[in-house]
Specification:
- The protein has 189 residues and is mostly beta strands.
- The chain is built from one helix and ten strands.
- A hairpin with a 4-residue loop joins strand 4 and strand 5.
Length: 189
Amino acid sequence: MDFKNIFLKTLFLSLLFTSNSLSAQDQPKFNKQEIGLQLVGLDNFDFDFLYKKQVKQNAYRRIGLAFASLNVHNVGDNGNGNFSVGINIGRENRKSINDKLNFVHGVSWLLNSSLNTSENNTFSAFSTGVGYLLGVHYQLNESFYIGAEIIPSLTTSFVINDGFDNLSFNAGFNSRSVGLSIVYKFEKT
């Protein structure tokens, strides 16, 4: 298998599914934005930061910054450390069920990376792919809503350690795919 072609095709398809088409200047201006926190994972309870901006009627671009961490142990010659970060960028479409409840769905591009180093070894791990968001939002009041979502995904991952190692493909969802969120809505003037 040619890894470079697989990676580029996955990246291209991810961007294609999450991009918005550009149109003429007569498009109405949407000022609604949202920020929030999402509790993800049923096993270790990580938090993601969410930002959403309205791009069309009942459609939002969403960006989630996930599980950023930096750990350093035994600083010095015998030390070790790791850094990891994840991001997802996608489009969220909403369909009203009633005045308080919305069904949400859409495609997201996922990217996770980590760098691990120790006295004897340094390696990086990457994964990328697409996921499909399914969930509901319940409106608490004019400014806040809570959400419950899952994102089944199709990903490819690999490790760089003196070359490419451990190329793998994954499909489905796991406990990290489940999210509970609280979101604040506002309009930018």
